[in-house]
Write a structure and sequence with these properties.
mainly alpha
């Protein structure tokens, strides 16, 4: 086995956790791994918006990871021209993906998720105040 094959095989497990995270995001459950991105189960519209955003982000992350993995393999195999082409494609995809995630429709969906989170926090505060009967320490 030559050194290129060893490097490629040794690098694959490094990206494995990121691939798993991207797959979880595509199924809509990976957002729970992100800090501060939780919603109330009772908010059905916020839940739908959350799933929409998480799935789109998961697909984008997965594609970027696959491109990164391809670039590394091409560079290790000394296929520099194809590696350069993949770098250009990856940059173009990342720019297009960021523009897509920041368009008006996605911002409205994200705002719905944020509103659902705020409603959940307000309900928790009201429940806490009712349980403590307004007493403060």
């Amino acid at each position: 086995m030559d050194i290129e094959s060893i490097i490629i095989l040794a690098f694959c497990p490094v990206l494995l956790p990121f691939y798993i995270f991207a797959i979880l995001m595509m199924f809509g459950i990976g957002g729970k791994l992100l800090s501060g991105f939780n919603i109330s189960k009772s908010e059905t519209t916020a839940k739908e918006e959350y799933m929409f955003i998480a799935r789109r982000a998961g697909i984008g992350v997965f594609i970027v990871l696959a491109m990164l993995h391809t670039i590394i393999v091409l560079m290790v195999l000394k296929l520099y021209i194809w590696g350069g082409v993949m770098i250009g494609l990856a940059v173009a995809f990342i720019i297009a993906f960021l523009l897509y995630m920041n368009n008006k429709k996605m911002k409205e969906k994200l705002q719905a998720v944020i509103d659902g989170m705020e409603n959940q926090n307000n309900q928790k505060e009201e429940n806490y105040e009712s349980n403590t009967n307004g007493e403060t320490n």
